[in-house]
Amino acid sequence: MQGFDDIYTDIVDYIVRCTHRIWDERDIGLIYTHYTHNCVLYGTMGTLYDREDVVRDTIQRLVTLPERRGMATHVIWNGNDQDGFYTSHLVTGSGRHTQHGHYGPPTGRTFASRTIADCMIHANKIYREWVVADQMAILKQLGLDPHAFAEKVARTLHSKGMVSVDIGENRRMIGQYPPDSEPDLSIANTDLERETLEWLHAVMNRRMLGRIKDVYAPTCQYHGPLMTELYGVASVIHQTLGLIGSLPDAAFMPQHICSTPCDEGGTKVAVRWIMEGHHLGYGLLHALGEPTGKRVQIMGISHFHYKDGKIVDEWRVYDELSLLMQVKLAQMADRSTAVPAIPGEGADDGAQS
User: Fold this and answer.
1) In angstroms, rounded to a whole number, what is the distance separating the alpha carbons of residues 339 and 349?
2) Could you count the other beta carbons within 10 Å of the beta carbon of residue 57?
3) Which of 26-37 are b and which e, b meaning 16 or more Cβ less than 10 Å from the residue's Cβ?
4) How many Å from the N-terminal Cα to the C-terminal Cα in the chain?
5) How far apart, in whole angstroms, are the C-alpha atoms of residue 224 and residue 347?
6) What does the domain layout of the chain look like in residue ranges?
7) Which of these CATH numbers, 1.10.357.10, 1.10.3300.10, 1.10.20.10, 3.10.450.50, describes 11-144?
8) Do the domains 11-144 and 191-332 sit in the same CATH topology, yes or no?
9) Cα–Cα distance between 76 and 86 in angstroms, integer?
10) How far is 20 from 217, CA to CA, in rounded Å?
């Protein structure tokens, strides 16, 4: 590949091998030759704006979980070595919590979680990256309190003057108007990608969940957050309805889509998306507790495996811990702006003689 190190044979080899070298072989310094100095890394808990921040963040994560190992499940991609590549890389990580770090004192417990990282790459260097890591799955397996951890993160952000974490913009209209009748297909490159965006819009924005049975195989497998493993169309419908139920006014906005033929047969499609709405209802997001009314944003990535015209596998990754942190940050902002009551104000004048 032109502009890439000779060690890499193709773009899949590049993203899998350099990830392994940095995270598993601990060659953290490769970040200096594999990321641009002004790279931007978008995460579910915040954004990093330069390469040195990426180096420091990587060191801290390796300090906390030194035994973690990542297994590349698959890579979906498009592009070329002239114009640049876009990759969507699903990794299943596992290990044991043996060291003190941002998760606190070591618990000695094991964990497994899924992460999807989308990268924009040109001439051997990543210049944009979106990482969706299921941190809530790790916290729960380690036996840690998600509320306490989210509170700690929110407090740090609030101390810097932040009152919210922005990932994207909500295009869902406020008022008595239906959602757009048609999705934005401008980001699609193939017929299958366009079809995927169409049914996602029907399900997630128009709330036509009956479409799921039309596009998923009866024996489909669902691999969701918190290492959820479910089977069948009814399970996919329930997981999707539960997500919408927690944020009933949310808009679903695809940000990028790409697809790749796969060795198992059929085609795999990757969709990076954002949901934005308010925590107004009950659903899958149990960690948020009773509806708070707070605005939250979800950055998620889904991988679909189509075979014989139907989806046989879906991998859906988003981080509930990010949502919990956003709710707590909004509550902190409310408390800091609350106007204290004036003593005696509102007293019953009739009580005076």
Assistant:
1) 23
2) 17
3) eebeebeebbee
4) 91
5) 54
6) 11-144, 191-332
7) 3.10.450.50
8) yes
9) 8
10) 34
The CATH architecture annotation of domain 191-332 reads Roll (3.10)
Instruction: Tell which phi-psi region holds residue 209, choosing left (phi > 0), alpha (psi between -120 and 50) or beta.
Output: alpha
Look-up of token digits 């944020």: 247
* Strand positions, DSSP E, the chain: 35-43, 46-48, 69-80, 84-96, 110-122, 125-133, 216-224, 228-231, 251-261, 267-278, 295-307, 310-317
Single-letter amino acid, residue 4: F
> d(Cα 302, Cα 340) in Å, to the nearest integer?
45
Report the candidate in 116, 115, 107, 110 with the shortest Cα–Cα distance to residue 95: 110
CA dihedral 147, 149, 155, 157 (to 10 degrees): -120
- Cα 227 from Cα 225, distance rounded (Å): 5
* Rounded alpha-carbon distances, angstroms, from residue 65 to 56, 105, 142: 14, 11, 12
Task: Return the structure tokens found at 39.
Answer: 């790279």
pLDDT tens for the 353 residues of the chain, in order:
999 999 999 999 999 999 999 999 999 999 999 999 999 999 999 899 999 999 999 999 999 999 999 999 999 999 999 999 999 999 999 999 999 998 999 999 999 999 999 999 999 999 999 999 999 999 999 999 999 999 999 999 888 887 777 764 444 444 445 566 788 899 999 999 999 999 999 999 999 999 999 999 999 999 999 999 999 999 999 999 999 999 999 999 999 999 999 999 999 999 999 999 999 999 988 888 899 999 999 999 999 999 999 999 999 999 999 999 999 999 998 887 765 655 565 545 544 43
